[in-house]
Input
Amino acid sequence: MKTIGWGFDAHRFGGEPPVLLAGVVADVKRGLLGTSDADVVAHAVADALLGAATLGDLGTLFPSGSVQEGADSMELLGTVMSRCRDEGLTVEHLDVTVIAETVSVSPVRAEVRRRLAAALDVDHAAVSVKATSTDGMGFTGRDEGVAAAAVVIGELAG
Output
């Protein structure tokens, strides 16, 4: 059956540099606070995958305290994808939007797409990565952090 999953994540600035988007360095001077490496793209995509496979959310799969400080979010995404595959999920399309005021996606977009496609084992043409700002509104507009939203369209066996 066709399935859709949606994911969202946000982290505030203040952690150790760099800011990572799907494991790609997007800002070398600032970092985001989080238990893991605070990669908002990897987290939003993981939640979208889990939603598409009806497996809950990241907190369900990785309960509080189960993730080591500074853990590689792309490795966590790999674990999520493996679990989703085991449930019969085949990813057909991924659409990601990064929401930030000063972290620029444009210079790293191609590499972010490539890494996400590899993590989901899909052609890069099935991965869209976009960016927007909130024009000064909210925490992202005040440049206090970065957020990301993701949608996965797929096929769920069974």
